[in-house]
Amino acid sequence: MFGIGFFELVVILVVAIIFLGPEKFPQAMVDMARFFRAVKKTLSEAKDTLDQELHLESLKQESLEYKKLFENEGDKIKGAFDHELKDLQQVQEDIRSSIAHANPLDALSSEVQADPPPEPPKVSLAKPPKKTSDV
Predict the structure, then answer these.
(1) Which residues of 37-48 are buried (b: 16+ CB within 10 A; e: fewer)?
(2) Is 13 a residue whose pLDDT tops 70?
(3) pLDDT (0 to 100) of residue 43
(4) Fewer CB within 10 Å: C terminus or N terminus of the chain?
(5) Measured between alpha carbons, how far is 88 from 94 in angstroms, rounded to an integer?
(6) Residue 20 contacts by C-beta under 8 Å, 6 or more apart in sequence?
(7) Which SS3 state, helix, strand or coil, does residue 122 take?
(8) What is the pLDDT of residue 68?
(9) What single DSSP character describes residue 115?
């Protein structure tokens, strides 16, 4: 522990007993044990916090990788749909042009336009005048 051997530890304890005296030495040992426990607990909490931060950083990095993956796949899907949409628009244009060229109604409409339809007779809803009789 701390690079201190057994003999060196015994010398330190003897000097502490002489310096503190037999009355204060037990309380000093208890205070020292509490201090070392507090330091150990603080170091453990700091280590746990650091581990959590590293874990959060790895989770953040992983989520960014997934985000990039989803964006790339979304772009691929959008590109495929855009390509299919262009193909469908081209087919629609082809159908419209073939309908415009082969529309039989256009030929019939030029023949039918010669005579306009007759106008319907006008009907009046007014009462007819009364006839007077010569009696």
Answers:
(1) eeeeeeeeeeee
(2) yes
(3) 94
(4) C
(5) 10
(6) 28
(7) coil
(8) 93
(9) S
Task: Answer for the pair 55, 46: CB distance below 8 angstroms, yes or no.
Answer: no
Quote the CA–CA distance of 56 and 58 in Å, as a whole number. 5
For residue 20, pLDDT over 90 is answered with no
Q: Which amino acid is at 96?
A: R
Give the helix ranges, DSSP H, for the chain. Answer: 6-101, 104-112
- The residue count of the chain comes to 135
pLDDT for residue 134 is more than 80: no
Torsion of CA 72, 73, 76, 78, to 10 degrees: -100
Three-state DSSP class for residue 94: helix
Rounded Cα distance, 37 and 29, in Å: 12
Write down the pLDDT at residue 38: 95
> SS3 of 5, please?
coil
Start-to-end CA distance of the chain, whole Å, equals 152
